Every structure is written in C-alpha cells, then in structure tokens.
Amino acid sequence: MSVTVQEIKFREPAGRIAQALPVPAAPVGGAPDLPEMQGEKMILNMGPSHPATHGVLRIILELDGEMITKAVPDVGYLHRGDEKIAENMTYTQFIPYTDRLDYLAPLANNVAYALAVEKLMGIDKALPPRCQYIRVICCELARISAHLLGLGAFAMDVGALTVFLHTFYEREKLYNLFEALTGARFTTTYTRIGGLSRDLPPGWIEQCRKFLDEVVVNFDESEKLLTRNRIFVDRTRDVGVIPRDVAIDYGLTGPNLRGSGVDYDLRKAHPYLVYDQLEFEIPVGSVGDCYDRYLVRMEEMRQSVRIVKQCLDKLPDGPINVGDGKTVLPPKEKVLTRMEELIHQFILVTQGVHVPPGEIYFGAENPKGELGFYINSKGGGTPHRMKIRAPSFVNLSVLPYVLPNHMMSDTVAILGSLDFVMGECDR
C-alpha cells in the first residue's frame, strides 16, 4: 500500500497501525522511564567492527540488564583528513575526494562541492540551463540510490532480508545508468567547476525513463513487505523517538529532521539549481520514531522520481559548461591546434581555476541531510581552509539522547533508521 505525503504529514499516534500501551513520559531519551533496578551495570563495546553499525562506528554502552542506561558514540576510526588534504590540492583535484564522503551518493557530493566553489567564484548563476537540469537529475538519482541501500540495510537489520535483495536489484540498474553517464559505477567524479565532465550519452534518457517506471513497482513491493508487517512495525513504532525540539537542538537535517515533524528542506527553503522550477512535496513525520523515518525516506524516493521525470521532460539543448575558457578545460581539438587554448589548459591543469579571495558557505540537501562546504580563499587555485559539514557526523550526535532507556536489541533499529555513512562522518 502506498503511503502518501498527506498520510505521513498528518498521521497522529492514535492512528498508527497498532495501539500502544500507555506509558509514562520520559524526561531523558525517547523511551519511558524504567523503575530503579538493583544490580551491577555492564559496559559493552558495540563496534567498531559490528555489522549493524554500518562501518567503523563504536558505541560505548552502559547496560542495566538488557536496558541501555548510557551511550557514548566514539567516531574517528577512519581518520581521513579530507579537509586538510583540500589545502594541498587544486579545487578540481579535490573533486574525487568528495566521492568518498557519502560514498552511496557520490554524484550529489560532486554537485554540492562544485556549487560551493562556483558561488565563491561568482559563476553559480551563469551555469547553462542544461547543466543545471542534468545536475538535478544526478542529485535525485543519487538520493534514490542512497535511500534504497539505507532502507534495505535497515530492513535487513531488523530481520527483513527480502527487502534488502529487492532494493539492491534496483540499485544495480542505477549503477548501470551511472556507468553509462560517468564512466564509473561507484566513484563518479562527474561534476566539474563550471559544468560537467561530459554530456548525456545517446539513449541514456530512454534508459532512465525505463528505470523510473520500474523502480516505483519496487517501492510498492517493499511497502507491502514492510509498512503493514507486524514484526517490522513492532520493531520500529515508538522506538527511537526524537521529538521536534530535540531534533532542532541537535542540528539534525534531512529525513531524520523531517521525520520529527520539521518541514525543512534546502531544496524548498533555499532553492538552488532549478529546484524552484519543479513541483514536488516534502514528506514530514508526526512522531519522530524509527517508523516515521522509514516512511519519510520511502516517500522521498517517490518524490525524487517525480523530480527526475520533470527534468527529463524539460531538459533543454545547449552547452553543459560555462563559456569561460579560464574555468573549464577547452575542447581537445582546439588545444591541439590553437595556442590560446593550449595555454588555458596548461594553466588549469597545473595551477587550477583562479578563485578570488573571500569566504563562503554553501549547503545542499543530500540524502543524509545538509552537506555543507565552507571555503576560505586567499586567491589562486587552492583553498586556504575548508570545512565540511557532514550530516552523518551531526546526526550521530543524537545517540546519547535517543539510545538510553531502550532495549539492547533496539539499538540496531535506531542506527538503521538514522542512516549514516562513516566515510562522511570521519571526513
């Protein structure tokens, strides 16, 4: 059964699938207070090598029997240092490193970073329309890909392996589209400062339309397996509740924020590219539990399909890069036959694009939340300082609040519903 935006937005706890027993309110955490228990508490390490932590996340749990009394996340095991690496590379050379942030949505990472640099250069409004539409297509396909894996892994964590196989089947089709478009399946490095690395290949639009028609059938099948499934509902409903004010206080973004009832999406609040020319809805939850976060992501994928179809219908002809030869590499045939283009290519490759002094921040609505780039420039082709606002890092900060007063077995459901990537967290 399809879950509409309205059902998600206006759903009340009393209208949930199963009626909850009355429980006392909890002053701390998302579950009811427990009576004082006698006994020695146990300290348990969950991770950093644990299948349910989806990477090298370590959580130090204090347990009273099966109940969690305290949770301390310990991050940083990847120690990647991307922000420091950026200071020793040109702006273009850093694009492959953005692939490895949320490596489930590399196309969206590329676009967010390129828009930040273009904003600093003052060319973000000069991007050709075709380039902007293709970038939106890339972002929304990346959102579908990331949510498919997130929901599949979430379902598998709570026992629904079939859903995981369903979602991976569709992601394989997406990877075929990404490979045809970018030349790579996983780390795409498709976007360039001022445009794109290449245009859409012949027949790609038809393949994309075919995928969009097929993936909605997969959504329906996954919803039939989960949305009314008693086991899934019992494992997720009223589990890991993050109230609206708590979600805001902790700086949550993306589906985790909207699942708590906050109608905030950068594509609507601060439109970029051509999002203000497209029609789509923002699904919002009402309770803020694991079940709401599942419903929000499921509906977001449907809205992404809607957005991509509009972009394919409206896709204009024209160039995919800005016309400035000092920003984008000139055509190869001109490099081989003309001195001016040869000089431009030599400078761009060796020194990078020239970025004026200044500082900017740009945030994009990525599948995990707001992916932001703060760039401080002293001029030239290399950033003086860069700070990446990784949504996974910020979203994990809520664990000390949400895990206490839950059963140990609820931890995997809560972690799966938050849908984080440690490569982005430990940037």
Q: Which terms would index this structure?
A:
single chain; 427 residues; mainly alpha; three-stranded antiparallel sheet; 18 helices
Spell out the CATH superfamily. Cytochrome-c3 Hydrogenase, chain B
The description of the largest β-sheet is: 3 strands, antiparallel
Radius of gyration over alpha carbons?
23 Å
Structural class: mainly alpha
Low-pLDDT residue intervals, each spanning 5 or more residues: 1-6, 8-29
Annotation, overall tally of beta strands: 8
CATH topology: Cytochrome-c3 Hydrogenase, chain B
pLDDT averaged residue by residue: 87
How does the overall form come out from the CA principal axes?
globular
Distance between the termini: 39 Å
Strand content bin: 5-15%
CATH class: Mainly Alpha
Order of helices and strands: HEEEHHHHHEEHHHHHHHHEEEHHHH
Instruction: Count structural domains.
Output: 1
Query: What order do the strands of the largest sheet run in, or round the barrel if closed?
Result: 1-2-3
Number of helices: 18
Share of helix, binned: 40-55%
Q: In CATH terms, what is the architecture?
A: Orthogonal Bundle
